[in-house]
Amino acid sequence: MYIVQIASECAPVIKAGGLGDVVYGLSRELEARGHSIEIILPKYNNMRYDHIWGLHDAYQDLCVPWYGDRIHCSVFCGWVHGRLCFFIEPHSEDFYFDRGTYYGCDDDPLRFAFFSKAALEFLLKSNKRPDVIHCHDWQTGLVPVMLYEMYQHHGMEHQRVLYTIHNFKHQGFAGTEILWATGLNREAYYFHYDRLRDNFNPFSLNFMKGGIVYANHVNTVSPHHAWEAMHEDCSFGLGHTLHLKGFKFSGILNGIDPKIWNPETDDHIPSPYSSATFEDKTLNQKALREKLLLRVCDKPIVAFIGRLDDQKGMHLVHHAMYHALNRGAQFVLLGSATDRQTNDWFWHEKHFLNDNPDIHLELSFNEELAHLIYAGANMMVVPSKFEPCGLTQLISLRYGTVPVVRGVGGLVSTVFDWDYDNEHPREERTGFVFYDTDQYAMESALNRAIDLYYNEPQLFQQLALQGMQYDYSWKNSGEEYIAIYDRIRHR
């Protein structure tokens, strides 16, 4: 099959979160299975150009209709660690992608509506006719809308769309200006409740709702999160739409790329190891302490890696820091805040704890340091309020770092509680799970992990090794995506 992915991120050249990892990892898996994959991305001025090989002009004169006029674009082509990517650069006084940031601008809906329009225009003008267009999150929610309302009448009637939702919290909202900018135009038509009108604000169009309504199939990134989106409040107002479109909605668990996340071959850690040489994990623990100037001791290292964002349960992360210290453990945090209040809060904590030799807060994101923390930590806390899939716990399991997670979304699908899981025998369990959002629930799970580490170290090691045996690569998920591609292209 010929598949084109349209997305706002692709790791490692453009990465703000897990979306970038998914686009790259899934593309690599599909190519390994013999499919032809191309990825269309915005050409941000702050992306990692050092990860692109052979960047060159691919289409110099792409004129994208916009507000009744046209914006001239250049399309560049290059290979990102073997993946063929096209980067769209608009030559506009609005400088849509020349802002030193991927997201966070007041006109983000306009920026990504233009990107979606330009991506379809590029496919049309360059005569690319993929079997499936696979688009991701709110930024590309208008792709299936414009494909079926406009572009199918201009030679793209056979293309089918899979729309993957990675995070329901961010849906993309705009008013009538989007319709006139993209050429969709008909306000009364698109503001109909059955099309793009937001479920709660009658004066707003919802990009993600448009993607759900118009795509041939919709999925989110774990089966349990798909259930949550349908039956709980995790869809942030889109539950009714999902119920109406439930016949084409499913969940597929994300994977991790074993070429990048593999303790046996990881170039970013000083002492590669496997389940057969698990004792070498302690050498990485020693290196982590040296790098972060932590006290050399026999205490377990508890870690958190991720965005400092309300979704990730910041009040529980903060509490875990102090509780771990009180329970005789060390704590390492790696992440950057998504809002000023959280940033100020954790910088205050960093200064307050600066002289404590058992804790280190690294308030930025560093890919190389992340690898060392996964390899050197003993436990990983993931206390998310909601977590569609989560990659942190999957990587932790791969590195023999025991996850302590809240039982939501993909976390509950991949971490099986050592003490209380009734669906898996003891030899298949992988971590510790709690369900409530209060500090006492988190304390209970973290206490059980620390107690097992201190009181029964052989069992703690057994638990860590059991986690390493699970295969959360893209192998199984890739098969599920291919099955969906096959199904929708034959409709």
Task: Give the secondary structure arrangement, pairings included.
Blueprint: E1 2-6, H1 18-32, E2 36-42, E3 52-66, E4 69-80, E5 83-90, H2 108-125, E6 132-136, H3 142-149, E7 160-165, E8 173-174, H4 176-182, H5 187-190, E9 205-206, H6 207-214, E10 217-220, H7 223-231, H8 239-244, E11 249-251, H9 281-292, E12 301-305, H10 314-326, E13 330-334, H11 340-352, E14 359-362, H12 367-376, E15 379-382, H13 392-398, E16 402-406, H14 409-414, E17 432-434, H15 439-455, H16 457-468, H17 474-489
Parallel strand pairs: 1-2, 1-6, 2-5, 6-7, 7-10, 10-11, 12-13, 12-15, 13-14, 15-16, 16-17
Antiparallel strand pairs: 3-4, 4-5, 8-9
Helix pairs in contact: 1-17, 2-3, 2-4, 3-6, 9-12, 10-15, 15-16
Q: Which CATH architecture of the largest domain would you pick?
A: 3-Layer(aba) Sandwich
Oligomeric organization of the protein chains:
single chain
Q: What's the total count of β strands? A: 17
- β-strand percent reads 15-25%
Q: Outline of this structure?
A:
This protein is an alpha/beta fold. The protein folds into two domains: 2-255 and 475-489, Rossmann fold, CATH 3.40.50; 275-472, Glycogen Phosphorylase B (Rossmann fold), CATH 3.40.50.
3D structure, described in words:
The structure is a single chain. Helix 1 links the parallel strand 1 (2-6) and strand 2. The strands form three sheets. A nine-stranded mixed β-sheet has the order 3-4-5-2-1-6-7-10-11. It has a six-stranded parallel β-sheet with strand order 14-13-12-15-16-17, sandwiched between helices. Strands 8-9 form a two-stranded antiparallel sheet. It contains 17 helices and 17 strands. The mean pLDDT is 96. Helix 1 (18-32) crosses helix 17 (474-489) and helix 9 crosses helix 12. It is globular. The longest helix has 18 residues, at 108-125. By secondary structure, it is of the alpha/beta class. It folds into two domains: 2-255 and 475-489, Glycogen Phosphorylase B (Rossmann fold, 3-Layer(aba) Sandwich); 275-472, Glycogen Phosphorylase B (Rossmann fold, 3-Layer(aba) Sandwich), CATH 3.40.50.2000. The two termini are 15 Å apart. Helix content is 37%, strand content 19%.
